[in-house]
From TrEMBL:
<dbReference type="InterPro" id="IPR029045">
    <property type="entry name" value="ClpP/crotonase-like_dom_sf"/>
</dbReference>
<keyword id="KW-0443">Lipid metabolism</keyword>
<comment type="similarity">
    <text>Belongs to the enoyl-CoA hydratase/isomerase family.</text>
</comment>
<dbReference type="GO" id="GO:0016853">
    <property type="term" value="F:isomerase activity"/>
</dbReference>
<dbReference type="InterPro" id="IPR001753">
    <property type="entry name" value="Enoyl-CoA_hydra/iso"/>
</dbReference>
<dbReference type="GO" id="GO:0006635">
    <property type="term" value="P:fatty acid beta-oxidation"/>
</dbReference>
<dbReference type="InterPro" id="IPR014748">
    <property type="entry name" value="Enoyl-CoA_hydra_C"/>
</dbReference>
<dbReference type="InterPro" id="IPR045002">
    <property type="entry name" value="Ech1-like"/>
</dbReference>
<keyword id="KW-0413">Isomerase</keyword>
<keyword id="KW-0276">Fatty acid metabolism</keyword>
<protein>
    <submittedName>
        <fullName>Enoyl-CoA hydratase/carnithine racemase</fullName>
    </submittedName>
</protein>
<dbReference type="Pfam" id="PF00378">
    <property type="entry name" value="ECH_1"/>
</dbReference>
<comment type="pathway">
    <text>Lipid metabolism; fatty acid beta-oxidation.</text>
</comment>
Amino acid sequence: MARVSVEIENHIARVTLTRGDKMNALDPEMMQAIVDAGESLMDNEDVRVVVLSGEGKAFCAGLDVMSFGIHAGSDPVELLMPRSHGNANLFQQVVMVWRKLPVPVLCALQGVAYGGGCQIALGADVRFAAPDTKMAVMEMKWGIVPDMGGMALLPHLTRSDVIRRLTYTAAPFDAAQALDWGLVSEIAEDPVAAAMALAEEIAGKSPSAIRAAKALIGFAEENKGDPDAVLLEESRVQSTLMGKPHQMEVIAANLQKRKPNFG
């Protein structure tokens, strides 16, 4: 059974979790399918933005606990410690692949985004949530800690006391609270439509500048304690864009009051 679908049209990649009958819960096959979907887009120059969503009544209910019986008796060190995907293991790459993609990733949430589902959403650049969406850092319910990249992402999004409260309690919280804490970007009646509208806007911008902007923002986040390095990187990135074909097309389009055509 297919776990994830990928459709590309007008420079927008629609990535959909397709295990709706199981609330898109994460079994081993789905985890691998999510990683494969993200990595399949990594070198696709035609893609300018990704919209990530889940079919059915939930974005992702988190780990399908029963399906991981295959790991019973496994050595956790051997299972988790190898870096099979650059700086990440497979479980972490399910989330981090979206942050590693060179183009923006917009996530549409509905129903629940629990545990691993919550962490996948955090890997996106922007998150739209339906008003009744529930989220949770759920791992403490099972006596474990977030281990799919959540701790690499949460400190960039919200306060330390919020991270601690959510991690210690595993308590669900609603979309309004998530918005207040900075864990979702916007509440929308139709989060997929909202994500697609933003995707279409981004897809009309300079492809090289959008990719450069995502990389620069990531650099700034990782080096926020070193403003000198960030200032230098700003200048370096800008020098790769100025006067190049995409920028010249933007200038011409603005002067001629038309949409740019990047080919």
